[in-house]
Amino acid sequence: MRFGVRSLCISFLFFHPGKEDCFLGSNFPAAARRKEQAMPGYELCCRECGKSWGNQPRSICDDCFSPLEISYDYQSLRVTREQIAQGPANMWRYSALLPLPESYRPSLPVGFTPLLRAPQLAAQIGARNLYLKNDAVCLPTLSFKDRVVSVALAQAREFGFETVSCSSTGNLANSVAAQAARNGFKSVIFIPADLEPAKIIGTQVFGAKLVRISGSYDQVNRLCSQIAEEHRWGFVNVNLRPYYAEGSKTVGFEIAEQLGWRLPDNVVVPMAGGSLITKIKKAFDELTMLGLVEPKAVRFFGAQATGCSPISTAVKQGANEIEPQKPATIARSLAIGNPADGHYAIKTIKASGGWAEDVSDSEVVQSIQLLAETEGIFTETAGGVTVGCARKLYKQDRILPDETTVLCITGNGLKTTDVLAGKYELAEPIPPKIAEFDKYMESEVFAGEGARATQAAARVFEEVA
Known about the structure:
Elements: H1 30-34, E1 42-46, E2 52-54, E3 68-72, H2 81-85, E4 115-117, H3 119-125, E5 130-134, H4 145-158, E6 163-167, H5 171-183, E7 186-192, H6 197-204, E8 209-213, H7 217-231, E9 234-235, H8 241-246, H9 249-258, E10 266-270, H10 275-289, E11 299-305, H11 310-317, H12 342-352, E12 355-359, H13 361-375, H14 381-395, E13 405-409, H15 434-441, H16 444-448, H17 452-464
Parallel strand pairs: 5-13, 6-7, 6-9, 7-8, 10-11, 10-13, 11-12
Antiparallel strand pairs: 1-2, 1-3, 4-5
Helix pairs in contact: 3-13, 4-5, 5-6, 9-10, 10-12, 11-12, 13-14, 13-17
């Protein structure tokens, strides 16, 4: 099945493959082979040569070894705002715009997280019309990865997999383990050995088999691409990657709907593999194509940690391809030195007139504190990266104060409390007497606690400006 010229096909690499590295799709469960014919409304197609691959667990084109992406039959798709509004208060209200089997019934209410005005943070970073897309409260595991995993597992069931797996920097591990448990899959999770303790526990608690690898995420991912073929498991970010990636579009769908079916002027997105920023762009394009929003040029800004910034470095250098880096940052959820979708993230940023920035580890920590103290949102390190980079972008006048700007907060700070170790001291306990409390209120400790982190953040930002 080949769709018309209106079909949108943007493809994504999960690594830079040689022929021997590709998951060729020849060895997968019998149920998957029976379902290889394309399902109505969407199919896999090659980003480079355009060849159609129907629907099956693969992510690479056999003909040219380029990545595959989901293409939709937009000419036949009919979706209205009213239909979406009548749907559930979660990401499944956009099911018509996702690659889901006809028989699929969601088991969890994922997504539709708050889009919040952020006036206090705005005042601190030089903005006036600032919003936060808060996936720190996304269910079931408090990160945007719950969106992508839910779509991937829908297809894993359709293709007949009994075991699902992933390579992960943490959040994906949590989500695959949780949703596998909910949906009756076995799960095997591969992680770098130095992952944050909270993310390790947040994976093991769901009964997943955890495999720690002595190496970087990129090394873990390469290993998983080999295991996917040998063991015929459903790796959400390898052989199920084209379906998995589509779940990120729901961030963009929600932003537009929550703004009253309008597109923002700017979006600031943290980048690890680089897929999220491209999928928010795809979501906006689809909404525009279907007449659900008015056409608008949205600028996309990427955010990385300086200790692992291959995409932002390429953008600043004017390059179209990334140079892999060895990660050295506390922002482990973004520590992917050879990003799968780096080329496409660069393309999205440049084509939109946006930019990419990066921040030091100290700026990440101070930005976590700043967001918590100004807006009451406790983000993990990736959110600290987003806030810190946004401040730089405002200071550089790349984003203007009155423009409608959305910052994507993609995970919860309870997963990375280790980065705040030593930042907060506990005062000595006092007796349960009012006189003692009055004395405590007059002390320097009590008076100085409130503004300490905000003042420290301002000092760090001024030092690096």
